[in-house]
Amino acid sequence: QVQLVESGGGLVQAGGSLRLSCAASGRIDSSDGMGWYRQAPGEQRDFVARISSGGSTFYADSVKGRFTISRDNAKNTVYLQMNSLKPEDTAVYYCSGSDYLGRLYWGQGTQVTVSS
């Protein structure tokens, strides 16, 4: 089993910043990548960013230049620094990771609300 616990969400004004954290425990495959996704009300869950075990990063076009994903392998924690936030960034943000069998796990999500 893998447990993923997100934190750091909240309410912020447009142009502000938030830093999300995702702490992983259990049989997480630390050699695999971890990622962030988000889901707005009535919408599908969309990819936001991903980081490989080696530190390579990938971003959705909508967040490039504003969001930064990073990880602390020793702590099994992945972060998402979100700057220049926009109202359209409002969503529940989910962390994802996998176990050694390749099964994908999700955290419970953390709400990010950006007011205009």
General description of the model:
The chain is globular, with a radius of gyration of 13 Å. The chain is 0% helix and 54% strand. Strands 2, 4, 5, 6, 9, 10 and 11 form a 7-stranded mixed beta sheet that branches. The protein has strands at residues 2-7, 10-13, 18-26, 34-39, 46-51, 57-59, 67-72, 77-82, 91-98, 104-106, 110-115. Strand 5 and strand 6 (57-59) form a beta hairpin. By secondary structure, it is an all-beta fold.
Name the features.
116 residues, mainly beta, seven-stranded mixed β-sheet, four-stranded antiparallel β-sheet
Mean pLDDT score: 94
DSSP, total strands: 11
Estimated structural class? mainly beta
In helices, the fraction of residues equals under 10%
**What is the 3D shape?**
globular
Beta-strand fraction estimate:
over 45%
N- to C-terminal distance: 40 Å
- What is the H-and-E element order? EEEEEEEEEEE
Provide a short characterization of the protein structure.
The chain has 116 residues and is an all-beta fold. It is built from no helices and eleven strands.
